[in-house]
Amino acid sequence: MAKREGADPKTNRLKARVPRGFVDRGAGELAAAERMLAEIRAAYELYGFEAVETPLVEYTDALGKFLPDQDRPNEGVFSFQDEDEQWLSLRYDLTAPLARYVSENFEALAKPYRSYRVGWVFRNEKPGPGRFRQFMQFDADTVGSASVAADAEMCMMAADTLDRLGLAGQYVVKVNNRKVLDGVMEAIGLAGDEEAARRLVVLRAIDKLDKVGVDGVRDLLGAGRMDPSGDYTKGAGLAPEQAERVIAFSEAKRATLEETFGALEAVVAGSARGAEGVAELREIAMLVAAGGYDTRVEIDPSVVRGLEYYTGPVFEAELTFPVTNEDGVPVRFGSIGGGGRYDGLVGRFRSEPVPATGFSIGVSRLLSALRLVGSPIVASAQPQAPVVVMVMDRERIADYQRLVAQLREAGIRAEMYLGSAGMKAQMKYADRRKSPCVVIQGSDERERGEVQIKDLIEGAKAAAEIETNAEWKAARPAQVSVPEATMVDAVREILARHR
């Protein structure tokens, strides 16, 4: 017999396994995520954003930087062909589908168009610790406004969202501007399409400032750098004077806002685009200060992640509390979301330019952060386990169905045991379900019109203090008999005791 792929080599039986880069999620995580998403949704709606949903699948050419080659799309997306041989892909992010949606419905939408979206995105990339091929994002975008006030509003909304989630005082929203970096590139002679590859190397070098320090960045901007493990990274090949100007840009943040702006103006001297970027940062700083957000939103030239995608202001929400990395060293938790202005994306579908700005939260990463800080949103999100109605006499199963129906009609989550095991196994089942209590009715109880209700939580506590079987039988811990007519009230009392 031929061996099946993924089969156990000894039995040739199909092996159950989740694909690499994907994960299953249990009831507790789902409940916590739903509570967190509800708070994010409420924050976005407070700012006037409305919900829209786009498909998980888009035509591949609509995704922007991932376009099909002669035979198949480039790496990075999961793609397939339809019956018309058109390339389709699972969405890589939520922004490109929004650009397609706005363009397709442009005349019908009120502009500026303010929307939010939440959903799964997919990356056909090598998975690793904390890196998955499927993850959830929660985005908000304003399309149709070129005003810097729209960018400032995104930063303020990000701050309000994190405050709402119980993270006040444990984050900062950092703001930079792509135009400032463009000014630096012009100043060092790296403008133009022919220098695009070297600009990307420079960008990646700046992004590693926290990890490798100034000297490490200087090496990466020059010939290259050998890390302690012996791995060599080729550098951007900048001359020393060019590298120093880039470093001056990345370290332009000073003790005061005015000093920071002064340093940025010096580093982009001679570039009109760079000066425009600094002016936009000044306006954002003025707007967030007017709104009372100046301690939560700050200008920081070190923010460069994703700058090749954006056209103006960029922002990143970073959690500041410490966690321990794989080497046991305390580090900041880091980024849980970001965004910026992307004026070119919607315009790919239309003859006129369409300005846009947005902010995206990484849902799984933010949920991990809430667990670390003990957020009540996560702690109180465990779903209520059901009350289990035990089946003692299978000939009278309709009687047990009637009991469970009474509980459900009263709004109590309940289930009737549907297996074939006896009482002992049914009790084990209820324990594994983490049921707060069980309802028991044998023939004697039925004749008396009663049920027994056993509080499993109190019973477990009492059992820990009982040493002999005789004591157990005498105590019958946390178990009471009540008339059927008062069963619902008795169950409610137990649930309220443990809620």
From TrEMBL:
It is an enzyme of class 6 (ligase). The keyword ATP-binding applies. GO terms for biological process: histidyl-tRNA aminoacylation. GO terms for cellular component: cytoplasm. It is found in: Cytoplasm. Residues 1-383 form the Aminoacyl-transfer RNA synthetases class-II family profile domain. PANTHER family: HISTIDINE--TRNA LIGASE (PTHR11476:SF7), HISTIDYL-TRNA SYNTHETASE (PTHR11476). Homodimer. This is Histidine--tRNA ligase.
